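Thread: quick sanity check before group meeting

JM: Hey all, I'm pulling together slides for Thursday and realized we never actually wrote out the predicted structure for the chain we discussed last week. Dropping the sequence here so it's in one place. If anyone has concerns about the input, flag it before I start.
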Amino acid sequence: MADTDSIATPIVSGITHWSKNSDDLIAFKEGRRHSFEYGRYGNPTVSVLEEKISALERAEAMLVTSSGMNDIVATLLALMSPGGHVVTTNECFSEARAFIRERLSKMGIRSTFVDLNDIETLKAVLDQGDVTLFYTDSPTNPHLVCIDSTLASPINQKPLTLGADIAVHSATKYIAGHHDVIAGCISGSQELIKTIRAWHQDLGGAISPDAAYMIIRGLKTMALRVETQNRTSLRMARLLENHPKIEHVYYPGLKSSPWHHIAKSQMTGFGGVVSFEVASDLHGVMRFIDALEIPFIATSLGGCESLVQHPAVMSFWGQSDEEKAKNGIKDNLVRFSFGIEKFEDLREKM
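JM (edit): ok, ran it. Output follows.
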């Protein structure tokens, strides 16, 4: 916004923008005058946010949407068409898997799900020559590659610099960072973002200027927050790994992780989420979680407050043992999303 000397980005809440006259309108339509037309197509405050995240991701173009799921749906609908083939992994975001399996199949789009640990099968599927899009999460070819980098954040990983065509984030998490706004963002080439933006406008997934302002504010502290979360998570993962009542710890920053060498080569930090299996049963884990004083029992991650999840009684509650096993969910699995509290306080309360 060039017409202000305010340090803080102004919130432009108007949804419709007027032209001085017909010539002024034509100049806007032909791209000779920069302005905005209607809130669903763009907004000055949202545009500032897109520019800032685009610079973080080192992307040609960026689109901010109303949620991370809107990112995923708009991207898949824009890039896939009947007869297409999307390959994804069993470990990617559960709602993305459901959309691919249950919704895209009704549109004549094939899907293949592969275990990320089975690299040879994944390579064989991708080398078949009929793959339109490879979609997966990361910290995890001649194919179009879409990476959901929410768990890493733009501070720890920049997928476009690693060869991905598209990177998506739930901006609700580390980017906004305060558990008070829902949004998503998609970065990529000008050509790809132009295609996705057209679908995004039809889907009506515009973010409000107020939400955009809150994310711009969150960006100012993101590096400080994420670096703190990286340090706390690594220290806690090492502590848990050596605890007699913990059976297994899942964290790419640990040398024992099968993904450590990959994470170390492409990430500057390992993120704020640590998962682990307690040496107990379902009810024993519930007692452990209920006794914790600092983490809130809540869904989400990446905010200032630490959160704890018990997947068996939260995101996978009511699912069959077979379905849980297929997704690697055990009754004793716990997920911690660390905030910015002091490590010593967290350790004491655990």
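AS: nice. DSSP finds twelve helices and twelve strands in the chain. The longest helix spans residues 209-241.
JM: adding both to the slides.
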